[in-house]
Give the backbone structure.
Amino acid sequence: MEALLCKRLGDPASSSSLSPIEVSRNHPIPELDSPTEVRVKVKATSLNYANYLQILGKYQEKPPLPFIPGSDCAGTVDAVRPAITKFNVGDQVCSFAALGSYATFIVQDQSLLSVSALPSLISILM
């Protein structure tokens, strides 16, 4: 999968040749490790000031390097654990995550997901 990795702290908007972020085109697809996890194929994510601060290393929570930035996202359920009853593969969902939405897939606990209230004729990305 593709993922935007923050490999070092710094300003991604800087004209410096040593960017703190890079695109990984063969990052491993995250596995479902917990019985309450759901994997989502990300279709849309946002760029927030908090994400920028994380990459700068100035956010109050400092994840270990390397990390995949990104917080809220919308997408389609790709995989669920057998115990999951609230979500099915193919459901459109939205989520708020501490990290990880700047990737093709994100794994979230089902408690952090909401079923999108979009009618079936409307897609997440119009």
In short: The beta strands are 3-6, 21-24, 37-45, 72-80, 92-96, 105-109, 113-115. The chain has a mean pLDDT of 90.
